[in-house]
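SEQUENCE-TO-STRUCTURE ENTRY
===========================
What this section holds: a protein sequence and its matching fold, both as plain text.
Tokens: labelled as protein backbone structure tokens, with as many entries as the chain has residues.
Question of interest: how does this chain fold, as expressed in backbone structure tokens?
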Amino acid sequence: MSYVLNPKVRDLVPYEPISGSYRIRLDANESFLEMSPGMKADILTRISQLHLNRYPDPTASAVCVKAGAFFGVKPENITVGNGSDELLTLITQVMMSKGEKLVYTTPDFSMYQCYGYLAENECIPFQKDENYQIDVDALIELINREGARTLIFSNPCNPTGVGLPRAEVLRLIEGVPDCLVVVDEAYMEFWDESVLDCVEQYDHLMVLKTCSKALRMAGIRCGLAIANPAITTALRAAKSPYNVNSMTQAAAECMFEYPDELKAAAQAVIASRDELYRAFVSLAEKHPGKLSLLPTAANFVYVKFPDIQAKRIFDALKSEGIVVRCMGDHLRITCGTREENAEVIRLLEVYLS
């Protein structure tokens, strides 16, 4: 008798980011900025001094101290994960039981639903309006009516770039006292509406942070969950004992010792994002009806094209060695260097003319 996969995983389709070598990569919302030579040398020195025959610190305590100082939160309220993805897996498995209801907004990061499904949560989508905004009153009503156990959403949103203002997030939190609210602030360094300072004020709030976007360290896979002591204790107890490797911990600890560099890098990305957005606004004005976009609070623009133009433009850019993200009738384009932004706009101008 042959082994048969269980129905939960039998028809799953793997998450497939674009692979290969391209001259311009604007598809994964990474930072276009490298770390400074001084930071890189410091990290390499620390890694060279590690005793890799020993297990890593199980709580990544040094990272918690340095990250806490950078973000202005208590180290004991931080759980460090192998990327935010590990933390999302923990949330759906640990903070919820089989069959409990998970609400996610749509469009949003696709893995929220995937992790909920794998944890055997009952996943309930909440549709945003035509401008990709969250109707907070309607969301509160849905959560309370369904008796949902957890809500997860990104703010600002990936893939739309639209943000929900802090006052509205707090109103949402206060309106669903029986539901854990997980606010994924992966892109909040490009905006200024965080609720991170409220994690101890509410017993049902968790904020996720990442080293992969503004902090320029997507390659080390380091994410942070910040919450009150009760939630943090539960996450730390349920995660695997040595979940974050020693090299990642050394790199993250070192990175947070360069706060001025990190903040300057985020400002440089914001300037690039604004430059790219203005260029797309001008492009839309020159080619009425051929594309549209909304203001963005993240490090990318989310551009809508009519018919099947998005896929055609995606293929045209790819043929020129430029990759962006194609999402139905939209392209999500991460901001890059001034030259990279200009090259994308130049090619689109040719294509749309």
